[in-house]
Amino acid sequence: HKQIKKICCIGAGYVGGPTCSVIALKAPHIQVTIVDLNQARIDAWNSDQLPIYEPGLEEVVKVARGRNLFFSTDVEKSINEADLIFVSVNTPTKKSGIGRGYAADLGYVEAATRNIAKVATSSKIVVEKSTVPCRTAQSMRKILEANGKPGVHFDILSNPEFLAEGTAIGDLFNPDRVLIGSLDTPAGKSAASSLVEVYANWVKPDQIITTNLWSSELSKLVANALLAQRISSINAISAICEATGADVDEVAYACGLDTRIGPKFLKASVGFGGSCFQKDILNLVYLSESLHLPEVAAYWKQVVDINEYQKTRFTKRIISSLFNTLTNKRIALFGFAFKKDTGDTRESAAITLCQYFREEKAKVAIYDPKVEESQIWYDLKEVGKGDSLEAIQQQVEIAADPFAAAEGADAIVIATEWDMFKDTNLDYEKLYSIMNKPAFVFDGRLIVDRAKLEAIGFKVEQIGKSTRDHGYE
Ligand code: NAI
Fold this sequence. Notes:
The protein has helices at about 15-25, 40-45, 55-65, 75-80, 105-120, 135-145, 170-175, 185-200, 215-245, 250-255, 275-290, 295-320, 350-360, 375-385, 390-395, 400-405, 430-435, 450-455; strands spanning about 5-10, 30-35, 70, 85, 125-130, 155-160, 180, 210, 330-335, 365, 395-400, 410-415, 440-445, 460. By secondary structure, it is α/β, with parallel strands linked by helices. Strands 3-2-1-4-5-6 form a 6-stranded parallel beta sheet, sandwiched between helices. It has a 6-stranded parallel beta sheet with strand order 11-10-9-12-13-14, sandwiched between helices. Strands 7-8 form a two-stranded parallel ribbon. It is globular, with a radius of gyration of 24 Å. Bound molecules: 1,4-dihydronicotinamide adenine dinucleotide. 1,4-dihydronicotinamide adenine dinucleotide binds next to helix 5.
């Protein structure tokens, strides 16, 4: 098989950036160029202020950048020089047309693929890194074959990415597995071997698995569906806990000790967010419907429905606890990212909560340690049902720290599980002293010690925990 000397990665986002930076770090003999159409993003990758926050990423980039790692907007040049090209562009849910709200928008993948076909003057291995519907590799092959230059051959591989934001660098250094799908032909298998060799620079051989293309594509959707299903399952149980006096942490712990179930991803919360879970499940739902399997579609759709239910349910609990009205009450919203250790807000539960609070005519003060202000305004405008930024800003402010957010507030709502919001790291006595009374904490992430906060004077409501026996219901 061919030895890879130069790699081009199309798409310098949350996946392409960290993944190919780690390849460059671990395989110093390979030249890696990450390209993007977005000039500002590339400029940021080339600066001290990287465009995404990810623990450990800066260190990796600092070592490899300028050595064998480059960031550029010269997409064509980089494609043409490379032996292997990762397609790592966004695949959001379609907003209009057939399949809107469910199907993946493959416009970016197709544009990148057409660009490869147009400019490649030598044979290439093209790798799907983006999460795509099953059989997308087939469409890519057709486009490449129909538009490629004579004599130029393309092999297509599927190599879905399993990293999780917030722990991307650790996940890439030490993956549970690397999955590579190829056609079951000599050329396909040889291309797969070339990519195996790239990962073998740091990943153990038995953790690199090869399958056919369609298994590989489908496995990524299924992995995300199964992960999200665990969250929706425990979140559904959290509703039962609140109504009965069972404690969802205790239930998750007791169940998770069963080795067939396992302890991970059984943490109840206000709901999962992130750019992938919802999009990939809806993509699976759409695939099922396209294959005339409505029961299968309905089964997986329920995972997303429970996630929405959880956000509404939490909001209702907040309203009823705050004496059935939020009008003109000030709510300190702690956290805006979809989870801790990332600045990413895509599909964050905090966005939905903030919109619900606005509809209830509350004032909201948001604090997040990593999310850019401009991103918060952008997200609130998107979800704001046509409201102008000025209208939104009459109800919402962005605070510089948790205390500024809590000043005069009736309630703290914890939406993201940042470590700094834990009662061991944040001065809740001081927060209590500057809030309106009764002062409430609504813990959507199960990160505070209720007894400790109650001792200070707070009324505490937590997902999956009943307040029945606490004398203030
Ligand atoms: P992103 O939106 O952060 O990055 C995609 C980048 O591709 C953008 O910077 C965009 O400007 C660029 N791009 C789009 N079309 C282009 C073109 N034709 N030429 C050059 N650049 C182009 O997206 P993210 O989060 O990195 O996701 C990429 C893919 O990876 C998606 O399919 C996603 O489902 C998948 N994925 C994401 C994970 C995550 O945690 N974010 C984890 C695993 C997979």
